Amino acid sequence: MESTPPSFLLKLLLLFSFLPNFHAKSLPTSTPSFPKQALPSKSGYLPVNPATGSAIFYSFYEAQNLTSPLSQTPLLIWLQGGPGCSSLLGNFFELGPWRLNPHSQNGKRLVLESNSGSWNRIFGLLFLDNPIGTGFSIASTPEEIPKDQHAVAKHLFAAITSFTELDPLFKSRPIYITGESYAGKYVPAIGYYILKKNPQLPVSRRVNLAGVAIGNGLTDPVSQVATHAVNAYFSGLINAKQKTQLEIAQWEAVKLTKEGNWSEATDARNRVLHMLQNMTGLATLYDWTRKVPYETDLVTEFLQKEEVKKALGANESIIWEECSDSVGAALHEDVMKSVKYMVELLVKQSKVLLYQGHFDLRDGVVSVEAYVKKMKWEGIGEFLSAERKVWKVNGELAGYVQKWGSLSQVVVLGAGHLVPTDQALSSQAMIEDWVLERGLFGNNQEENIGTNFRGSL
């Protein structure tokens, strides 16, 4: 999610308590809240500054079904947005193998249920609480929390390289960095950092980056903030007078951004979103069809249980919060800064997937297309003129795919901001086919017919 909720303090209680062993290589026991089959393969801490104890919390799930040798099985890394929201939200509410269902049939709130749309069906899946100070991750002091995307990427690189050292087979596996919302900045930042850093390192220490995927991302805020009025107006959610009022507010955010008044620009963007919320009266801008917001409080209730913290190998003194105020404050001036140039390098040297839930009013289809058409890339003309194809999953309409070369864009029908929550099977089909370059994501575009049938493995 892209927001700036609750606080930080008790994370400072950790300091050196786990320093002798950052990595929880096996998870001991199951609990009534956390059955054995739902436990991650590995979880624990990855150091970003061993001298102070700052570390990123991780939770890793190996592929459920291997379709290739383990040494070649792709690894997906998931980063949540915020800034400051925990990736365990993605784990237990979106794309993990077991998730909390607000509509559980047995009447109990906190029941983990198997997720048939999990992203680790045939891939390894790694969740990272990023930046430090987020979720179960540790910032030994508030000053160590990153204030820009370079610092975010530096910490992520340290965590990812520490993770790949846990198992010799991790080194050779292709890595895909994925995430949503404010991770529209984190994902390009770490991808860009890897592309710049790898040539300086011996082969044995390089990160085997294969691609990046961004869902409903905030990536080029100055382009994206200017789309809210027209998007809401043509969706029938505001009238012409309100459109004009919103455009004036948007213009102020753009003006402040172009002047480099970063904190004021962030505040101006927040005013735009508040105006849009008040004008529409929607339950949430994340999905204009919802009558109530996403019920993510289930994850908070679940992860504050002592038995769950223990099962995950998390520091038990930390009170888990969905999003950290302290991280949000540290990155306040970063919000309106663009990382479009990073995406431009990634699309030249890697492959990029941009996907959006159709019902998202914050970082949705129109918002993303606004910056994509401005990308500096030799293939952008061909991409913009490429056919947008009807995409089906199991014979049913799932959305639309536009692809040329290394860039793919997907519109997921029936989904809001949290695409894997809303359309689990479609999101699974999308990520698998994009990674494996099959169906509409294959290179022989003229040969496919826009239908993807899911089979069991």
From TrEMBL:
One of its GO terms (molecular function) is serine-type carboxypeptidase activity. GO terms for biological process: proteolysis. InterPro entries: AB_hydrolase_fold, Peptidase_S10, Ser_caboxypep_his_AS, Ser_caboxypep_ser_AS. Its EC number is 3.4.16.-. It comes from the Eukaryota. Residues 1-24 form the signal peptide. PROSITE patterns: CARBOXYPEPT_SER_HIS, CARBOXYPEPT_SER_SER. Keywords: Carboxypeptidase, Glycoprotein, Hydrolase, Protease, Secreted, Signal. One of its GO terms (cellular component) is extracellular region. It is an enzyme of class 3 (hydrolase). It is found in: Secreted. Transmembrane segments: none annotated. Belongs to the peptidase S10 family. PANTHER family: SERINE CARBOXYPEPTIDASE-LIKE 50, SERINE PROTEASE FAMILY S10 SERINE CARBOXYPEPTIDASE. This is Carboxypeptidase.
